[in-house]
Amino acid sequence: MNNISAKEYAASNLAPSIFYKKEVESKIFALIDCNNFYVSCERLFRPDLNNKPIIVLSNNDGCIVSRSNEAKSLGLPMGGPLFKYKNIIKNNNVNIFSSNYKLYSDISYRVMNSLRSFCPDIEIYSIDEAFLRLDKMSICNINNFANNIYSKVSKWTGIPISIGLAPTKTLSKIANNIAKTRSEFLGVCNLSDIKNIDAIFKNMKVSEIWGVAKKTEAKLNSINIFTIYDFKNSNQKLIRKILGVVGERIFLELNGVSCLDIQEVSVRKHISYSRSFGEKQTKFEEISQAIANHTSCACAKLRRQKTVAKGIIVYIATSPYSQKENYSNSYSIALDNPSSNSAEFIKKAQECLKKIFRHGYSYHKSGIVLFDISEENILQESFLESKIDDERNKKLMKIIDDSNYKSKSQILFFASQGIQRKWQTKKDLCSPCYTRWEELATVK
Predict the structure, then answer these.
(1) With CB atoms 3.0 to 4.6 Å apart as the test, which of 75, 298, 334, 340 could cross-link to 302 if both were Cys?
(2) CATH code for 33-151?
(3) Distance, CA of 130 to CA of 262 (rounded, Å)
(4) Is the pLDDT of residue 82 over 60?
Protein backbone atom coordinates (compact mmCIF):
# COMPACT_ATOMS: atom_id res chain seq x y z
CA MET A 1 0.00 0.00 0.00
CA ASN A 2 2.89 2.34 -0.71
CA ASN A 3 2.07 5.80 -2.04
CA ILE A 4 2.93 6.25 -5.73
CA SER A 5 2.37 8.97 -8.25
CA ALA A 6 -0.15 8.63 -11.06
CA LYS A 7 2.69 8.63 -13.64
CA GLU A 8 4.45 5.76 -11.87
CA TYR A 9 1.20 3.86 -11.58
CA ALA A 10 0.31 4.44 -15.24
CA ALA A 11 3.74 3.16 -16.24
CA SER A 12 3.10 -0.15 -14.48
CA ASN A 13 1.33 -3.07 -16.15
CA LEU A 14 -1.65 -2.54 -13.82
CA ALA A 15 -2.37 0.99 -15.03
CA PRO A 16 -6.05 1.77 -14.36
CA SER A 17 -8.14 3.62 -16.91
CA ILE A 18 -10.21 5.32 -14.23
CA PHE A 19 -7.54 7.57 -12.71
CA TYR A 20 -8.79 11.13 -12.26
CA LYS A 21 -6.32 12.63 -9.78
CA LYS A 22 -2.82 13.84 -10.46
CA GLU A 23 -1.34 11.71 -7.72
CA VAL A 24 -2.33 9.10 -5.18
CA GLU A 25 -2.58 10.79 -1.80
CA SER A 26 -1.95 9.23 1.59
CA LYS A 27 -5.46 9.09 3.00
CA ILE A 28 -6.99 7.77 6.20
CA PHE A 29 -10.68 6.87 6.24
CA ALA A 30 -12.64 5.84 9.29
CA LEU A 31 -15.95 4.01 8.96
CA ILE A 32 -18.10 4.27 12.06
CA ASP A 33 -20.96 1.79 12.24
CA CYS A 34 -23.54 1.51 15.02
CA ASN A 35 -23.80 -2.07 16.25
CA ASN A 36 -27.24 -3.68 15.77
CA PHE A 37 -28.57 -0.13 15.55
CA TYR A 38 -32.33 -0.64 15.79
CA VAL A 39 -31.90 -3.08 18.66
CA SER A 40 -29.45 -0.72 20.41
CA CYS A 41 -32.00 2.10 20.16
CA GLU A 42 -34.67 -0.09 21.78
CA ARG A 43 -32.29 -1.03 24.59
CA LEU A 44 -31.25 2.56 25.21
CA PHE A 45 -34.41 3.31 27.20
CA ARG A 46 -34.98 -0.29 28.30
CA PRO A 47 -31.85 -1.45 30.17
CA ASP A 48 -33.83 -4.48 31.35
CA LEU A 49 -33.41 -5.82 27.79
CA ASN A 50 -29.60 -5.96 27.99
CA ASN A 51 -28.21 -9.44 27.31
CA LYS A 52 -31.63 -10.65 26.17
CA PRO A 53 -32.57 -11.77 22.64
CA ILE A 54 -34.29 -8.98 20.66
CA ILE A 55 -35.48 -8.64 17.08
CA VAL A 56 -36.90 -5.63 15.23
CA LEU A 57 -39.33 -6.18 12.38
CA SER A 58 -39.82 -4.56 8.99
CA ASN A 59 -42.88 -2.66 7.82
CA ASN A 60 -46.11 -4.51 8.60
CA ASP A 61 -44.17 -6.62 11.10
CA GLY A 62 -43.25 -9.02 8.33
CA CYS A 63 -39.51 -9.79 8.42
CA ILE A 64 -36.55 -9.51 10.80
CA VAL A 65 -34.42 -6.42 10.02
CA SER A 66 -32.30 -6.11 13.17
CA ARG A 67 -31.09 -8.68 15.72
CA SER A 68 -29.23 -8.61 18.98
CA ASN A 69 -26.21 -10.89 19.28
CA GLU A 70 -28.29 -13.16 21.50
CA ALA A 71 -30.94 -13.45 18.77
CA LYS A 72 -28.27 -14.17 16.16
CA SER A 73 -26.94 -17.05 18.27
CA LEU A 74 -30.42 -18.62 18.20
CA GLY A 75 -30.21 -18.84 14.40
CA LEU A 76 -32.69 -16.07 13.62
CA PRO A 77 -31.60 -14.82 10.17
CA MET A 78 -31.55 -11.30 8.79
CA GLY A 79 -34.58 -10.83 6.55
CA GLY A 80 -36.24 -14.00 7.81
CA PRO A 81 -40.09 -13.97 7.75
CA LEU A 82 -41.48 -13.75 11.29
CA PHE A 83 -44.01 -16.57 10.84
CA LYS A 84 -41.27 -19.09 10.03
CA TYR A 85 -39.50 -18.60 13.36
CA LYS A 86 -42.41 -18.29 15.79
CA ASN A 87 -41.45 -21.48 17.64
CA ILE A 88 -37.84 -20.35 18.21
CA ILE A 89 -39.06 -16.93 19.31
CA LYS A 90 -41.64 -18.38 21.72
CA ASN A 91 -39.38 -21.06 23.21
CA ASN A 92 -36.54 -18.58 23.86
CA ASN A 93 -38.62 -15.58 25.05
CA VAL A 94 -37.33 -13.37 22.25
CA ASN A 95 -38.45 -9.73 22.60
CA ILE A 96 -40.10 -8.40 19.43
CA PHE A 97 -40.46 -4.77 18.31
CA SER A 98 -42.00 -3.05 15.30
CA SER A 99 -39.71 -0.58 13.55
CA ASN A 100 -39.84 2.80 15.32
CA TYR A 101 -38.31 5.06 12.66
CA LYS A 102 -38.96 8.28 14.58
CA LEU A 103 -36.88 7.00 17.50
CA TYR A 104 -34.12 5.63 15.26
CA SER A 105 -33.93 8.88 13.30
CA ASP A 106 -33.57 10.95 16.48
CA ILE A 107 -30.82 8.71 17.87
CA SER A 108 -29.03 8.68 14.51
CA TYR A 109 -29.04 12.49 14.50
CA ARG A 110 -27.34 12.49 17.92
CA VAL A 111 -24.71 9.97 16.85
CA MET A 112 -23.86 11.86 13.64
CA ASN A 113 -23.63 15.19 15.48
CA SER A 114 -21.24 13.57 17.97
CA LEU A 115 -19.05 12.33 15.12
CA ARG A 116 -19.13 15.75 13.47
CA SER A 117 -17.70 17.29 16.67
CA PHE A 118 -14.57 15.14 16.17
CA CYS A 119 -14.18 15.57 12.42
CA PRO A 120 -16.03 17.99 10.12
CA ASP A 121 -15.05 15.99 7.02
CA ILE A 122 -17.91 13.50 7.28
CA GLU A 123 -20.12 11.55 4.89
CA ILE A 124 -23.31 10.16 6.44
CA TYR A 125 -23.66 6.96 4.44
CA SER A 126 -26.81 5.58 6.10
CA ILE A 127 -28.88 5.93 9.27
CA ASP A 128 -26.21 4.04 11.25
CA GLU A 129 -22.99 4.51 9.23
CA ALA A 130 -20.65 7.40 8.49
CA PHE A 131 -17.26 7.87 6.86
CA LEU A 132 -14.69 10.30 8.29
CA ARG A 133 -11.55 11.45 6.50
CA LEU A 134 -8.90 11.93 9.15
CA ASP A 135 -5.68 12.65 7.23
CA LYS A 136 -6.61 16.33 6.77
CA MET A 137 -6.58 16.82 10.55
CA SER A 138 -3.58 17.35 12.84
CA ILE A 139 -3.65 14.04 14.71
CA CYS A 140 -0.56 12.80 16.54
CA ASN A 141 -1.76 9.25 17.14
CA ILE A 142 -4.55 8.00 14.89
CA ASN A 143 -5.30 4.97 17.09
CA ASN A 144 -5.70 7.06 20.24
CA PHE A 145 -7.95 9.44 18.31
CA ALA A 146 -10.15 6.57 17.10
CA ASN A 147 -10.33 5.05 20.58
CA ASN A 148 -11.39 8.44 21.92
CA ILE A 149 -14.23 8.59 19.36
CA TYR A 150 -15.23 5.05 20.29
CA SER A 151 -15.51 5.76 24.02
CA LYS A 152 -17.00 9.27 23.79
CA VAL A 153 -19.73 8.44 21.25
CA SER A 154 -20.76 5.39 23.25
CA LYS A 155 -20.85 7.48 26.42
CA TRP A 156 -22.67 10.49 24.93
CA THR A 157 -25.32 8.59 23.01
CA GLY A 158 -25.48 5.18 24.67
CA ILE A 159 -25.13 3.47 21.29
CA PRO A 160 -22.27 0.94 20.86
CA ILE A 161 -20.18 1.48 17.72
CA SER A 162 -17.36 -0.13 15.75
CA ILE A 163 -14.59 1.75 13.91
CA GLY A 164 -12.56 0.63 10.92
CA LEU A 165 -9.47 2.58 9.79
CA ALA A 166 -7.81 2.17 6.39
CA PRO A 167 -6.33 4.13 3.44
CA THR A 168 -9.47 3.56 1.29
CA LYS A 169 -13.22 3.52 1.93
CA THR A 170 -13.56 -0.08 0.75
CA LEU A 171 -10.80 -1.24 3.09
CA SER A 172 -12.28 0.77 5.98
CA LYS A 173 -15.53 -1.18 5.50
CA ILE A 174 -13.60 -4.42 5.82
CA ALA A 175 -11.72 -3.08 8.84
CA ASN A 176 -15.03 -2.19 10.47
CA ASN A 177 -16.28 -5.72 9.88
CA ILE A 178 -13.17 -7.10 11.54
CA ALA A 179 -13.57 -4.71 14.50
CA LYS A 180 -17.17 -5.80 14.94
CA THR A 181 -16.67 -9.55 14.68
CA ARG A 182 -13.29 -10.08 16.38
CA SER A 183 -13.25 -9.29 20.09
CA GLU A 184 -9.46 -8.84 20.31
CA PHE A 185 -9.72 -5.50 18.47
CA LEU A 186 -12.01 -4.05 21.18
CA GLY A 187 -14.23 -2.29 18.65
CA VAL A 188 -11.47 -0.43 16.74
CA CYS A 189 -9.44 -1.94 13.89
CA ASN A 190 -6.66 -0.11 12.04
CA LEU A 191 -5.95 -2.22 8.99
CA SER A 192 -2.49 -0.67 8.60
CA ASP A 193 -1.43 -2.13 11.97
CA ILE A 194 -2.16 -5.72 10.99
CA LYS A 195 1.10 -7.31 9.80
CA ASN A 196 -0.34 -10.46 8.21
CA ILE A 197 -3.54 -9.04 6.74
CA ASP A 198 -3.57 -11.60 3.94
CA ALA A 199 -4.14 -14.38 6.48
CA ILE A 200 -7.35 -12.63 7.53
CA PHE A 201 -8.40 -11.88 3.96
CA LYS A 202 -8.04 -15.57 3.05
CA ASN A 203 -10.78 -16.38 5.58
CA MET A 204 -13.19 -13.64 4.46
CA LYS A 205 -15.64 -14.33 1.65
CA VAL A 206 -15.65 -12.06 -1.38
CA SER A 207 -19.28 -11.20 -0.55
CA GLU A 208 -18.00 -9.30 2.52
CA ILE A 209 -16.53 -6.64 0.22
CA TRP A 210 -18.52 -3.41 -0.02
CA GLY A 211 -20.27 -3.35 -3.40
CA VAL A 212 -20.14 -7.09 -4.09
CA ALA A 213 -23.73 -8.36 -4.31
CA LYS A 214 -24.92 -11.91 -5.06
CA LYS A 215 -24.72 -11.58 -8.84
CA THR A 216 -21.23 -10.09 -8.63
CA GLU A 217 -20.18 -12.82 -6.20
CA ALA A 218 -21.40 -15.48 -8.65
CA LYS A 219 -19.36 -13.92 -11.49
CA LEU A 220 -16.25 -13.84 -9.29
CA ASN A 221 -16.77 -17.43 -8.11
CA SER A 222 -16.95 -18.51 -11.76
CA ILE A 223 -13.31 -17.42 -12.20
CA ASN A 224 -12.19 -19.00 -8.90
CA ILE A 225 -12.31 -15.82 -6.81
CA PHE A 226 -13.89 -16.83 -3.50
CA THR A 227 -12.15 -14.70 -0.86
CA ILE A 228 -11.05 -11.10 -0.41
CA TYR A 229 -7.47 -12.35 -0.80
CA ASP A 230 -8.35 -13.88 -4.17
CA PHE A 231 -9.93 -10.63 -5.39
CA LYS A 232 -7.08 -8.46 -4.13
CA ASN A 233 -4.48 -10.59 -5.91
CA SER A 234 -6.42 -11.21 -9.13
CA ASN A 235 -5.73 -9.82 -12.61
CA GLN A 236 -6.91 -6.22 -12.95
CA LYS A 237 -7.61 -6.46 -16.67
CA LEU A 238 -9.75 -9.56 -16.13
CA ILE A 239 -11.69 -7.81 -13.36
CA ARG A 240 -12.26 -4.82 -15.66
CA LYS A 241 -13.49 -7.14 -18.42
CA ILE A 242 -15.96 -9.00 -16.18
CA LEU A 243 -17.14 -6.28 -13.75
CA GLY A 244 -16.41 -3.08 -15.66
CA VAL A 245 -15.21 0.19 -14.16
CA VAL A 246 -16.98 -0.39 -10.83
CA GLY A 247 -15.23 -3.74 -10.34
CA GLU A 248 -11.88 -2.25 -11.28
CA ARG A 249 -12.43 0.51 -8.73
CA ILE A 250 -13.06 -2.10 -6.02
CA PHE A 251 -9.88 -3.91 -7.07
CA LEU A 252 -7.82 -0.71 -6.78
CA GLU A 253 -9.34 0.19 -3.41
CA LEU A 254 -8.50 -3.29 -2.08
CA ASN A 255 -4.90 -2.64 -3.12
CA GLY A 256 -4.72 0.68 -1.26
CA VAL A 257 -5.42 3.05 -4.16
CA SER A 258 -8.15 5.46 -3.03
CA CYS A 259 -10.73 6.03 -5.78
CA LEU A 260 -13.67 7.15 -3.60
CA ASP A 261 -13.52 10.31 -1.50
CA ILE A 262 -15.82 11.74 1.14
CA GLN A 263 -19.07 13.14 -0.26
CA GLU A 264 -20.91 15.73 1.82
CA VAL A 265 -24.12 15.02 -0.09
CA SER A 266 -24.46 11.87 -2.13
CA VAL A 267 -26.67 12.69 -5.12
CA ARG A 268 -28.59 9.58 -6.06
CA LYS A 269 -29.82 8.83 -9.55
CA HIS A 270 -33.27 8.22 -8.15
CA ILE A 271 -35.23 8.33 -4.89
CA SER A 272 -37.78 5.62 -4.20
CA TYR A 273 -40.42 5.46 -1.48
CA SER A 274 -42.78 2.55 -0.99
CA ARG A 275 -44.82 0.87 1.73
CA SER A 276 -46.94 -2.23 2.13
CA PHE A 277 -50.45 -1.47 3.36
CA GLY A 278 -51.43 -2.49 6.89
CA GLU A 279 -54.58 -3.98 5.36
CA LYS A 280 -55.21 -4.66 1.69
CA GLN A 281 -56.77 -1.68 -0.05
CA THR A 282 -59.49 -1.70 -2.71
CA LYS A 283 -60.49 1.99 -2.89
CA PHE A 284 -58.81 4.51 -5.15
CA GLU A 285 -59.09 7.25 -2.49
CA GLU A 286 -57.05 5.32 0.10
CA ILE A 287 -54.31 4.38 -2.36
CA SER A 288 -54.28 7.95 -3.68
CA GLN A 289 -53.55 9.22 -0.16
CA ALA A 290 -50.68 6.75 0.21
CA ILE A 291 -49.17 7.81 -3.13
CA ALA A 292 -49.45 11.49 -2.16
CA ASN A 293 -47.72 10.77 1.15
CA HIS A 294 -44.91 8.81 -0.53
CA THR A 295 -44.42 11.65 -3.01
CA SER A 296 -44.34 14.33 -0.32
CA CYS A 297 -41.70 12.42 1.68
CA ALA A 298 -39.55 11.85 -1.41
CA CYS A 299 -39.73 15.53 -2.41
CA ALA A 300 -38.72 16.56 1.10
CA LYS A 301 -35.63 14.37 0.70
CA LEU A 302 -34.90 16.07 -2.63
CA ARG A 303 -34.94 19.48 -0.97
CA ARG A 304 -32.78 18.33 1.96
CA GLN A 305 -30.01 17.32 -0.40
CA LYS A 306 -30.58 20.40 -2.61
CA THR A 307 -31.54 18.45 -5.71
CA VAL A 308 -34.36 18.35 -8.25
CA ALA A 309 -35.96 15.53 -10.25
CA LYS A 310 -37.14 15.36 -13.82
CA GLY A 311 -40.02 12.91 -13.42
CA ILE A 312 -41.95 10.39 -11.34
CA ILE A 313 -42.91 6.72 -11.59
CA VAL A 314 -45.93 5.39 -9.67
CA TYR A 315 -46.57 1.69 -9.14
CA ILE A 316 -49.14 -0.48 -7.34
CA ALA A 317 -49.32 -4.23 -6.81
CA THR A 318 -51.40 -6.97 -5.26
CA SER A 319 -49.74 -9.57 -3.03
CA PRO A 320 -47.69 -12.11 -5.03
CA TYR A 321 -48.87 -14.76 -2.56
CA SER A 322 -52.55 -14.13 -3.17
CA GLN A 323 -54.53 -17.11 -4.45
CA LYS A 324 -56.62 -14.80 -6.62
CA GLU A 325 -55.51 -13.18 -9.85
CA ASN A 326 -52.50 -10.90 -9.34
CA TYR A 327 -52.07 -7.43 -10.80
CA SER A 328 -49.21 -4.94 -10.82
CA ASN A 329 -48.53 -1.94 -13.01
CA SER A 330 -46.60 1.30 -13.22
CA TYR A 331 -46.75 4.58 -15.10
CA SER A 332 -44.31 7.47 -15.43
CA ILE A 333 -44.57 11.16 -16.26
CA ALA A 334 -41.71 13.57 -16.99
CA LEU A 335 -41.92 17.23 -16.01
CA ASP A 336 -41.22 20.04 -18.43
CA ASN A 337 -38.63 21.37 -15.98
CA PRO A 338 -36.90 19.53 -13.08
CA SER A 339 -38.41 20.41 -9.69
CA SER A 340 -38.55 19.56 -5.99
CA ASN A 341 -42.03 21.04 -5.48
CA SER A 342 -44.21 18.56 -3.59
CA ALA A 343 -47.46 20.01 -4.92
CA GLU A 344 -46.33 19.66 -8.53
CA PHE A 345 -45.17 16.08 -8.09
CA ILE A 346 -48.29 15.05 -6.13
CA LYS A 347 -50.44 16.29 -9.01
CA LYS A 348 -48.40 14.25 -11.50
CA ALA A 349 -48.48 11.21 -9.19
CA GLN A 350 -52.28 11.31 -9.12
CA GLU A 351 -52.33 11.40 -12.91
CA CYS A 352 -50.12 8.31 -12.98
CA LEU A 353 -52.30 6.45 -10.49
CA LYS A 354 -55.44 7.08 -12.55
CA LYS A 355 -53.75 5.41 -15.51
CA ILE A 356 -52.95 2.16 -13.68
CA PHE A 357 -55.62 1.72 -10.99
CA ARG A 358 -58.08 -1.10 -11.68
CA HIS A 359 -61.22 -1.80 -9.66
CA GLY A 360 -61.80 -5.28 -8.30
CA TYR A 361 -58.31 -5.89 -6.90
CA SER A 362 -57.08 -5.91 -3.31
CA TYR A 363 -53.81 -3.97 -3.39
CA HIS A 364 -50.93 -4.92 -1.13
CA LYS A 365 -48.29 -2.28 -1.90
CA SER A 366 -47.76 1.11 -3.52
CA GLY A 367 -44.71 3.21 -4.26
CA ILE A 368 -43.13 6.01 -6.23
CA VAL A 369 -39.74 6.72 -7.79
CA LEU A 370 -38.35 10.18 -8.57
CA PHE A 371 -35.87 9.88 -11.44
CA ASP A 372 -33.27 11.93 -13.34
CA ILE A 373 -32.05 13.70 -10.21
CA SER A 374 -29.55 16.56 -10.47
CA GLU A 375 -28.21 19.33 -8.27
CA GLU A 376 -30.50 22.35 -8.07
CA ASN A 377 -27.66 24.86 -8.49
CA ILE A 378 -27.00 23.66 -12.05
CA LEU A 379 -30.65 23.88 -13.05
CA GLN A 380 -31.29 25.97 -16.15
CA GLU A 381 -34.06 28.52 -15.68
CA SER A 382 -37.19 28.19 -17.79
CA PHE A 383 -38.46 31.11 -19.90
CA LEU A 384 -42.01 29.74 -19.65
CA GLU A 385 -42.22 29.74 -15.85
CA SER A 386 -42.81 32.86 -13.77
CA LYS A 387 -39.94 33.67 -11.42
CA ILE A 388 -42.44 35.12 -8.95
CA ASP A 389 -44.41 31.85 -8.84
CA ASP A 390 -41.19 29.86 -8.53
CA GLU A 391 -40.00 31.93 -5.55
CA ARG A 392 -43.42 31.68 -3.93
CA ASN A 393 -43.37 27.87 -4.25
CA LYS A 394 -39.86 27.67 -2.80
CA LYS A 395 -40.90 29.77 0.22
CA LEU A 396 -43.95 27.56 0.76
CA MET A 397 -41.84 24.39 0.65
CA LYS A 398 -39.35 25.94 3.08
CA ILE A 399 -42.11 26.77 5.56
CA ILE A 400 -43.40 23.19 5.38
CA ASP A 401 -39.90 21.70 5.77
CA ASP A 402 -38.88 23.99 8.64
CA SER A 403 -42.12 23.40 10.55
CA ASN A 404 -41.98 19.64 10.19
CA TYR A 405 -38.28 19.57 11.07
CA LYS A 406 -38.78 21.54 14.29
CA SER A 407 -41.72 19.41 15.38
CA LYS A 408 -40.09 16.21 14.09
CA SER A 409 -43.45 15.18 12.66
CA GLN A 410 -45.77 16.02 9.77
CA ILE A 411 -47.68 18.90 11.33
CA LEU A 412 -48.00 20.51 7.90
CA PHE A 413 -49.07 18.34 4.98
CA PHE A 414 -51.19 18.39 1.86
CA ALA A 415 -54.90 17.50 2.14
CA SER A 416 -54.38 14.83 -0.53
CA GLN A 417 -52.21 12.91 1.96
CA GLY A 418 -55.29 12.21 4.08
CA ILE A 419 -55.93 12.48 7.81
CA GLN A 420 -57.03 9.06 9.07
CA ARG A 421 -54.65 7.17 6.79
CA LYS A 422 -56.18 3.70 7.09
CA TRP A 423 -53.58 2.47 4.61
CA GLN A 424 -50.66 2.88 7.01
CA THR A 425 -48.45 -0.10 7.83
CA LYS A 426 -48.99 -2.22 10.92
CA LYS A 427 -46.93 -1.38 13.99
CA ASP A 428 -48.60 -3.47 16.67
CA LEU A 429 -45.36 -3.91 18.63
CA CYS A 430 -43.98 -0.37 18.37
CA SER A 431 -42.22 1.11 21.40
CA PRO A 432 -42.75 4.74 22.50
CA CYS A 433 -40.57 7.40 20.89
CA TYR A 434 -38.79 8.28 24.12
CA THR A 435 -36.98 11.27 22.57
CA ARG A 436 -40.21 13.30 22.14
CA TRP A 437 -42.06 15.22 24.81
CA GLU A 438 -45.39 13.45 24.34
CA GLU A 439 -43.75 10.03 24.71
CA LEU A 440 -41.15 10.59 27.43
CA ALA A 441 -40.49 7.68 29.74
CA THR A 442 -42.44 7.84 32.99
CA VAL A 443 -41.70 6.51 36.47
CA LYS A 444 -44.47 4.50 38.12
Answers:
(1) 340
(2) 3.40.1170.60
(3) 10
(4) yes
